[in-house]
Design the sequence.
């Protein structure tokens, strides 16, 4: 069964950086095969791919794009810029959909000297869009509306990380699958680096008082905090 | 002499004339050399004097195949471009499969096999170029780490400490044999490469291209000023040697 929906990643653009975050688990039906898997691949000096989907496909696709970009650099003496990388990725996905589809979803985060941070979203059909804040997988249902509310242009790194923690908190609260750990990486003018989140985000368990008076439907009225 | 028309025909005395003519084409090409030093590889190439309106930097003789592999060719430049592009694809393909940088042996063997393929079947001519491929082995430690290979149109590849190809290669190789020392530093290597090329190059410094490959860094090309400085140094050394020689003559005369 395709694992596309289970990849949970999101990303957004800040003032002078582009950020992606993803959960680290590799599930296979009810089992977590691997609990810490880095799904964010560095594909060029200032480009990150956050890939979700089947393990084989996403590793293969990320490496394939990365190697082709290196070949382009060797052959032409210059690196391909983020826009070029995005369009190359898109056309690779579009060409392979009717042959051997890569069942991956990609968020590309990049930084350009001239135009600053950039972000691209791809699905396995070869759809490409250029959002400011986006997500892949089932967590889209929770996070896109969160971004509508809380993302604003020109956020500093601290504000961005606060937003990341907000997203993770929301997912722990409402998403049925428990996501144990997240990896966060950013691209800025210095290149690619991993960020360690300060807060440990944990779900506050709401306790239900079974002795409290029940309503007609049988649900206790008082929820113990 | 009808044995030299087709590539697939041996002559009675066992020669493949087309291949040998291809090697002649190499001898017409601009000189190129490479020297293995203690911790780096020096590549040198003769640049033919560009036309006045031509942009000099568009003529590339020292070509990068990968971050750790560099190649310099002598012979037909167009063939060089095609061959090096094939090598570049092969490098990335190797990296994709094995998650490692390809050893210089692998790529030189690949190019040699490619050149050999064109000597077997009819209808296609051999590549008219010889290459010097040098680089770092990904996991052999220390001394054996830097490797330099030569490939020729017949498809033979051999490993060298220092080698010259192209125009007047016999003279340049004799020079290298005479003066090469193991464990040279980068500066000594550059000086030797330039001294060697000055033997054949017309007009001196501005027709010499030097590249240095140090482990972990990308190929570094010397600027014209740097090359000029070394040329000046060499001229000074030669002048001193001449002075010493004349001094000895004077002493003997006395």
Sequence:
């Amino acid at each position: 069964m395709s694992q596309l929906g289970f990849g949970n990643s999101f990303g957004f653009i800040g003032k002078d950086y582009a950020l992606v975050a993803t959960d680290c688990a590799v599930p296979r039906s009810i089992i977590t095969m691997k609990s810490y898997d880095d799904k964010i691949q560095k594909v060029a000096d200032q480009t990150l791919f956050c890939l979700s989907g089947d393990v084989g496909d996403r590793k293969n696709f990320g490496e394939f794009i990365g190697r082709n970009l290196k070949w382009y650099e060797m052959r032409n003496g210059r690196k391909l810029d983020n826009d070029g990388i995005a369009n190359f990725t898109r056309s690779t996905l579009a060409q392979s959909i009717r042959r051997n589809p890569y069942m991956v979803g990609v968020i590309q985060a990049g930084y350009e000297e001239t135009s600053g941070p950039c972000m691209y979203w791809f699905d396995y059909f070869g759809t490409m869009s250029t959002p400011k804040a986006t997500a892949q997988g089932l967590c889209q249902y929770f996070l896109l509306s969160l971004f509508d509310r809380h993302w604003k242009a020109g956020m500093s790194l601290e504000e961005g990380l606060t937003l990341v923690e907000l997203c993770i908190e929301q997912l722990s609260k409402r998403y049925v699958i428990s996501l144990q750990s997240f990896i966060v990486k950013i691209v800025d003018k210095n290149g690619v680096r991993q960020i360690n989140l300060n807060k440990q985000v944990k779900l506050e368990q709401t306790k239900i008082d079974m002795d409290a008076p029940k309503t007609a439907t049988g649900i206790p009225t008082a929820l113990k905090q | 002499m009808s044995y030299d028309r087709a590539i697939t025909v041996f002559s009675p005395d066992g020669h493949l004339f087309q291949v040998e003519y291809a090697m002649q084409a190499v001898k017409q090409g601009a000189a190129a050399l490479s020297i293995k030093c203690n911790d780096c590889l020096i590549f040198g190439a003769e640049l033919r004097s560009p036309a006045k309106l031509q942009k000099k930097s568009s003529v590339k003789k020292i070509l990068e195949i990968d971050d750790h592999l560099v190649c310099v060719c002598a012979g037909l430049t167009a063939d060089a471009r095609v061959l090096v592009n094939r090598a570049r694809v092969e490098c990335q393909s190797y990296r994709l499969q094995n998650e490692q940088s390809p050893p210089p042996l692998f790529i030189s063997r690949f190019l040699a096999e490619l050149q050999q393929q064109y000597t077997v079947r009819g209808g296609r001519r051999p590549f008219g170029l010889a290459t010097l491929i040098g680089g770092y082995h990904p996991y052999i430690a220390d001394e054996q780490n830097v490797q330099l290979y030569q490939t020729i149109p017949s498809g033979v590849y051999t490993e060298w400490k220092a080698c010259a190809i192209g125009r007047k290669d016999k003279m340049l190789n004799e020079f290298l044999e005479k003066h090469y020392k193991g464990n040279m530093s980068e500066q000594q290597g550059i000086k030797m490469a330039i001294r060697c090329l000055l033997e054949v190059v017309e007009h001196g410094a501005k027709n010499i291209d030097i590249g240095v490959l140090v482990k972990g860094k990308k190929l570094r090309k010397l600027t014209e000023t740097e090359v000029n400085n070394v040329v000046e140094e060499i001229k000074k050394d030669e002048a001193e040697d001449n002075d010493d020689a004349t001094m000895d003559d004077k002493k003997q005369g006395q």
